[in-house]
Structures are given as structure tokens and as C-alpha cells.
Amino acid sequence: MPDFLCIGAQKAGTSWLHRVLAQHPGLGFPGGKEVHYWDWVESGRKPPDLEGYRRLFSGQPERRLGDMTPAYATLREETVRTLLAAFPGVRVLFVLRNPIERAWSAARMFYGWSQLEPDEATDEWFLPLLQSRGSISRGDYEMTLRRWQPHMRPGQLLILHYEDLLGDPAQSVRQVCDHIGVDAASLPEGSERALRARVREGPPRELTPFLRKELDRIYRPRIVSLQRYLGRDLGHWLDSLGRT
């Protein structure tokens, strides 16, 4: 069975976290970083094969094995319930990033893949990406937590914040290792460096006033609600809306 899952958020440093954890001799990722089992089964892209998924994480009793698929943040509650019933002891990680910065980073990534010339990537081209259900659901952290937390035991979920990863990556890695149940001291020295280089932001692109206003409209109420839900001040997100 998987010992731990990282369910996102997309564009919140999960590639960096995977790179660091993969260097730990007591950890492993037999399916690579992103297995995409649960989201692809949910969407019909892959047939259900729970025993095959379970076998993927067998045969290495000396290591704790993980699946870091940020798309799991958008799973329906029924799928989450099935997952946690199958693996009730799995440790879960969730990294939160200012959802406007997250959304713009993802949009820039898609722009980088698009082969558009800079003058072709207009506000009108970006707007459907930012307004899409997929983009908004990836930044609706409260909805994710409301789907996952009722089915977990106290202490099963570790919530991290992207700015804490930036400010003190070594401490953040220690928190993750403690949560998973391995000793962070076994990591190679300096393995937590270069976080910024591991977040694939896409080509540099300034957020226009028009798009900033639209992202403010979408996410400001969600940030305010998330503050109440978490009991944590997220005023720095509100103060920096639209900055990348």
C-alpha cells in the first residue's frame, strides 16, 4: 500500500519536494512522481484496478513509498472516501500557495506549451484558462480540505504553505519527513536547495490589470473563507493579489 500521498497543490513546489524526498534512502516512488491512478479512474481514462495500484507499492518493506499526484486535490468526495477506506493509514501532504499566483503560474505553463507568439497570447486567450472549472478547483483549497478531512484521523494530514517552503526549505523538509515517519538526517546535505528552480512557472509574462481584476474576483472570497476554515491569517495573500 502507499505509505504517503501528496495531493497538491499544482504549481506549489511538489516537483521540488519529490526531487528532495527521492534522495532519501528510506523513501521511494515506484510509480514515478505522479501515478494518476485515482483521478484517471474517476474520469474514466483508466479502468479500476485497485489491486494493481496496491501491488505497485509492495515488495519494498524497508522503504516508505509514495504517490505525489497534485490532481488528487480535485477528486470527488466519493473517490476520496474509497481511497481512504482502502488505505486508512496513509499519510497525506497538501501544499498551499496563494491561489492567484498558482493560477497564473499554471496559465503561463500552458502558454509555454501553446507555441503562440507573445502578441497572440492576449487577455482573451488567457481568460478561459483562468476561468475554467479545472483551474478554479485546483485553487479552491477549502473545498479540497472539506472533501478529505472528514475521512481522516487527527494528524493524518500535514498542511504546508509554499511561502514556508521558500523561507525555510530545510525545516519544511524536516516537517514532511517527520510526518511520513523517516529521519530527515538521512537526506544528502543541501538536498533542499534551489526550490525556485523546481517550480516550472512557464515563460515570464506580466499579469495584466484586466486579468488581475478577474482573478481577484474569483479568489478573494475563497481566500477570506479559507482563513476562517484554517484559523490562519492569510492577509499576505490578500495584500499581494495578482503579484507573481
The side-by-side strand order for the widest beta sheet comes to: 2-3-1-4-5
What is the chain-wise order of helices and strands? EHEHHEHEHHHHEHHHHH
Distance between the termini: 38 Å
Number of strands: 5
Describe the protein.
- By secondary structure, the protein is α/β, with parallel strands linked by helices.
- Helices cover 50% and strands 9% of the residues.
- The protein contains 13 helices and 5 strands.
- It has helices spanning 14-21, 37-43, 50-56, 77-86, 99-114, 123-131, 133-139, 141-148, 162-167, 169-180, 195-198, 209-230, 235-239, and strands at 4-6, 27-28, 64-68, 91-96, 157-161.
- Strands 2-3-1-4-5 form a 5-stranded parallel β-sheet.
- α5 (99-114) runs antiparallel to α7 and α6 packs parallel to α12.
- The radius of gyration is 18 Å and the shape is globular.
- It starts with a strand and ends in a 5-residue tail after the last helix.
- The mean pLDDT is 93.
Précis, in short:
With 244 residues, the protein is of the alpha/beta class. The protein has helices spanning 14-21, 37-43, 50-56, 77-86, 99-114, 123-131, 133-139, 141-148, 162-167, 169-180, 195-198, 209-230, 235-239; strands spanning 4-6, 27-28, 64-68, 91-96, 157-161. It is globular, with a radius of gyration of 18 Å.
